[in-house]
Specification:
The chain is built from 6 helices and 4 strands, in the order H-H-E-H-H-E-H-E-H-E. By secondary structure, the protein is an alpha+beta fold. The protein has a 4-stranded antiparallel β-sheet. The chain binds flavin mononucleotide (FMN).
Length: about 180
């Protein structure tokens, strides 16, 4: 691993306010392609990546997600309200990782988690700001009209990454707790 890669890992943070500036399509493609390079248990790649940059679809996810979150998760809704009441924080794009249920001792969520890590780090390396986000899944409940429109058939929302340019540059990640590491 190069020191550049380590610097990108150290720089990534959860950005919760974005400029309107769109993310160029070639960058979105590069980032999504980094996502599908992720390792997966027995190389089953149980995912599809959906690159969303259409303003109407982003708006639908925001509106429907907030409405469903409010009904389903009072604490989560209060958390979003305390952060300005915007589920997608004004991000101009997102990559959704959708997964397929497969018979296996290895949870597909592990595979999806590695994909979003690849996506967030690739985007950070390219100068974007990101936020790994589970709450947008509220908008894409299995069987819902919006899920049918956005997600490939047979795949459910697993996790997403919001992508864009920070409204206020200079955000910082959580303080890493190196005491959580032991050496045997
Ligand atoms: C699985 C997962 C789901 C998350 N979902 C959300 C979310 O829906 N909204 C949000 O603002 N942040 C979300 N986060 C971001 C975390 O809150 C954030 O990574 C954590 O507070 C550490 O801060 P940092 O990323 O800035 O270091 C999520 C992170 C993970 C790993």
């Amino acid at each position: 691993m190069t020191t550049d890669t380590l610097a990108v890992i150290a720089r990534r943070y959860a950005c919760r306010a974005y400029q309107d500036t769109p993310v160029p399509a070639d960058l979105l493609r590069t980032i999504a392609e980094a996502g599908v390079r992720a390792p997966s248990a027995v190389n089953r790649q149980p995912w599809r990546l959906v690159v969303v940059s259409d303003k109407t679809v982003m708006g639908d996810i925001e509106t429907q997600g907030l409405e469903n979150l409010r009904a389903a998760d009072e604490t989560g809704y209060a958390r979003i309200q305390s952060r300005g009441g915007r589920l997608l924080y004004g991000a101009p794009a997102m990559i959704i990782v959708a997964t397929q249920a497969v018979e296996s001792p290895f949870p597909v969520a592990l595979d999806a988690g590695i994909v979003v890590s690849h996506v967030a780090l690739a985007a950070t390396a390219l100068g974007l700001d990101t936020c790994v986000a589970a709450f947008p899944g509220q908008a894409l409940q299995p069987g819902s009209p919006l899920a049918a429109k956005v997600l490939p058939a047979g795949f459910d929302f697993a996790i997403s990454v919001l992508l864009g340019y920070a409204a206020t540059p200079g955000g910082t990640p959580h303080e890493p707790d190196f005491a959580k590491i032991s050496y045997v």
